[in-house]
Amino acid sequence: MKSPSTNVISISIHFVSEEKRPAAALKIQSCFWGFLVRKSMKKIVEIKKEVDEVEQQISRRETVDLIRTNAKEQLRVNEILMALLFWLDSVRGVDSGVRECWKKVIRKAIALQENVDAIVAGDQAAIVVDGVGSNGQILVGDDSVNSSSGTSETFVGDGD
């Protein structure tokens, strides 16, 4: 039986001096870190757009009426919001700024879920119709805009 022929390939190895190694590793690490931050923020922005679309749908009178009268529509909206929350849960919080954006979008989605529940319960104080609540403010999310004056107010969370 013939033995397989073997080819010997010589590979030259060059050692990097000790003082250059940390700078190169730091550069690679910072590039990778930036990549992870950009990737996470891209996902969060996509999810925020979806949450904003659901918010716009909920702010219309015809959608509010449909949610009140049709259990399937309520379930559909809640399932969309839950799917978005699950998608948000898959995003890695690699940076404190990313985590803050992540938390704001989560709070907004949960507030929308509570708003849908309030619509079904008939709670007039919490219902947003045409984007404005009964007290003249947009109620959903961290930022509230007073529709009568056009001023913006920021609500401070509980430190989550």
UniProtKB/TrEMBL annotation:
Superkingdom assignment: Eukaryota
GO molecular function, one term: protein-folding chaperone binding
PROSITE patterns from the UniProt entry: BAG (PS51035), IQ (PS50096)
Pfam families per the UniProt record, alphabetical: BAG
UniProt keyword Chaperone present: yes
UniProt feature coiled coil, ranges: 37-64
SUPFAM superfamilies in UniProt: BAG domain
Domain BAG: 43-120
InterPro entries tied to this protein: BAG5/6/7/8, BAG_dom_sf, BAG_domain
Alphabetized SMART domains for the sequence: BAG
Protein name (record): BAG domain-containing protein
